[in-house]
Structures are given as C-alpha cells and as structure tokens.
Amino acid sequence: MDLGIKGKRALVCAASKGLGFGCAEALAEAGVDLVINARGADALEAAAADLRARFGVQVTAAAADITTDEGRAKVLAAADHPDILVTNAGGPPPGSWQDWEREDFIRALDANMLTPIALMKALLPAMMDRGWGRVVNITSQSVKAPIAVLGLSNSARAGLTGYVAGTSRQVAPHGVVINNMLPGIHATDRASSLDGGVAKAEGITVDAARARREATIPVRRYGTAAEFGATCAFLCSQHAGFIVGQNILLDGGATNATL
After folding, report:
1. Does residue 220 carry a pLDDT above 90?
2. pTM as predicted
3. Which of the four pLDDT bands, split at 50, 70 and 90, describes residue 254?
4. For residue 257, is pLDDT > 90?
5. 3-state secondary structure the chain
C-alpha cells in the first residue's frame, strides 16, 4: 500500500533502537525524511546511517535528552517543524506504591507526560497552518489495564491520554490527526529489563521468566518492533485521516477486554 507520505518529514523520538527505531524504519520505507533522536550519540548515528543506506531518505541524528528543556530545544531546532511527530520515552522503573515519593512521580510525569505535551505544543501550530499533520504518541497497554508494579508509568501515561483526548479533537478540523499506540510486551530492551527483574526476584532464569510471560499472551510470543512500526506508519499516512484521538492496543491479545 502506498501510504501517500513520501517526501514528508518526521521527528521520531527514542529512535536508535526498539519501538522508536521500528517506527523510524517503517516511515523511512514509506519515503519519509527523518530527524531521529536518542540520548546515545553512537547508537543514534549508527541507526541513521543504516536508514539512509537502506531507504535513501534524508536522516538527521539529533542526540539529546528529550525530557529536558535543553534537549528539546536542540531537537526541535534540528526538526524544523516536521509534518509528523512520534513521541517516545523509556518508561520509569517498576516498584511498589510504598516506595514512590513525589520526586519519582515528577520524573515520570516529565518523561512520559509533560515531554510529549511540550513537543506537541511546539509543533502543532505549524501543522495546523499547513492543514496537515500526524502525531503518534507511544504510551503503554497499562493505559487500558493498569499494571501494579508500573504505577509510575500508569499515572503519567494516563495523564497524557487524557490530554490527547481533548487536544486531538481541537486540532482535527485543521487536518491534524493525533493518536496513541499502546504497546504490550515487545522484544525490546525494556522487556529484557523487566524479565531480568522477575528472574532476579524469583531466582529463575531470564528465559524462564520470558517463557512464563509469553504463555500469558494469546499469540504466545512477544511483539516485534517491525510490526509495531508498520502500524505507526499507517497512523501517519494519508489513509488515517478519520482516526482521531484513539488508543490503538498492540499487545497480542493480552489485555482481556471487550472494548
């Protein structure tokens, strides 16, 4: 399918690996020029070189911490008002409600709620002026079904979801579409970290922890960055103009819900 976005320009955050890279890869395959961001310069430059070589698109690497004011300023200057924005940031660590203090919540909110809001606030006006834009926020399946040990993530991402629910409907008349993607467990460093934590806590191997988690997913496997990226690219396409303010769950059926 021709997504109709060849020649558009996208900013993709946390794109040196994992789900962010999957989104950048799918957009590059569709002919979209990219500005990709991550904190680690070496991994980011390697990802940029890979995408340029395989897809022949322009790729600018902007290494910075997107959760800081200085980092956002650097990345936004490099992006120069793109047509497409994909927000993404690593989730806060797991834990228990007894362990979290105000500072922990502030860090989670900064990374997973206030940063994407700041990026949207900076970039939406130009999209509206042009009469076209796409925003995809990578959140979490915990928005649909909270995960107890991820209370910090549950809180911050739910806040972002509420913000998008209202904002998406305000900008839609101007041709700007905002949606959220809610990943379940995918084969990324984040999944490996969570599996490692379970293995350490229970005295089992990481493979055993992963196998046990896979058994709870109806498709009996973790998702891949490539299939996640393909969905992202569709939501950024010309074909997604009637999908507004939605929360697209990609979890292999793990969330047991009708709606």
Report:
1. yes
2. 0.94
3. very high
4. no
5. CCCCCCCCEEEECCCCCHHHHHHHHHHHHCCCEEEEEECCHHHHHHHHHHHHHHHCCCEEEEECCCCCHHHHHHHHHHHCCCCEEEECCCCCCCCCHHHCCHHHHHHHHHHHHHHHHHHHHHHHHHHHHHCCEEEEEECCHHHCCCCHHHHHHHHHHHHHHHHHHHHHHHHHHHCEEEEEEEECCECCHHHHHHHHHHHHHHCCCHHHHHHHHHCCCCCCCCECHHHHHHHHHHHCCHHHCCCCCCEEEECCCCCCCCC
